[in-house]
Design a protein that fits this description.
It is a single chain. This protein has 177 residues and is α/β, with parallel strands linked by helices. It has two domains: 123 residues, no CATH class; 40 residues, no CATH class. It has three helices and six strands; from the N terminus they run αβββαβββα. Strand 4 and strand 5 form a beta hairpin. The radius of gyration is 19 Å and the shape is globular. The chain starts with a helix and ends in an 11-residue tail after the last helix.
Length: 177
């Protein structure tokens, strides 16, 4: 979802309860606080040597112990108005940064009014090789061993990857409580 649609929903529902639903279905606490709105530009080179640029409108959402705090859609829309010069009239995709065990960034998938609440549904981001042809991969083979420029092909590399995957923190694992 881009800023224009996001802010339009905020303005159309200024007094609704503002909710963010994480990809796993958990809901960010209603007393969460948007601590910043910004433009994030990422300039990078992929493993095939090609330069890329991405730009997003970034919201940092923070939960604190102040359970009486409520940010309405109308207030958030006014903050976007104040931030307008940062965006220079461009309409960037919205991403929400939220810490739950680890800091994660979630693109906003959709927004809708549900039972008097303005609910923004977040989705996950995924990594991918951006130089698949150079790495010897065809589209649809993302999960296969790559070799070449961006993948290891030793048993040791595969063992490390499996060990790292099994030690990953998930929001419901209880490791951060």
């Amino acid at each position: 979802m881009n800023q224009t649609e996001f802010v339009s929903l905020l303005n159309a529902n200024p007094d609704a309860e503002l909710r963010f639903v994480l990809p796993d279905g958990d809901v960010v606490a209603v007393h969460s606080h948007v601590t910043e709105i910004g433009k994030v530009e990422k300039l990078f080179i992929d493993c095939g040597g090609k330069p890329h640029r991405t730009v997003t409108s970034h919201l940092q959402v923070w939960e604190y112990t102040d359970t009486d705090h409520r940010l309405t859609p109308g207030v958030l829309a006014r903050i976007f108005e104040k931030a307008a010069p940062i965006f220079g009239g461009e309409d960037y995709p919205i991403e929400v940064e939220f810490e739950q065990c680890v800091i994660s960034q979630y693109p906003v998938k959709s927004g809708a009014v549900e039972d008097g609440k303005l609910v923004f549904t977040l989705e996950t981001k995924h990594t991918a090789c951006l130089a698949m042809e150079r790495c010897g991969l065809a589209p649809g083979q993302e999960g296969e061993e790559a070799g070449g420029c961006c993948g290891g092909d030793s048993d040791e590399d595969e063992a490390k990857t499996e060990a790292e995957a099994s030690s990953c923190c998930s929001p419901k694992a209880g490791c951060c409580s």
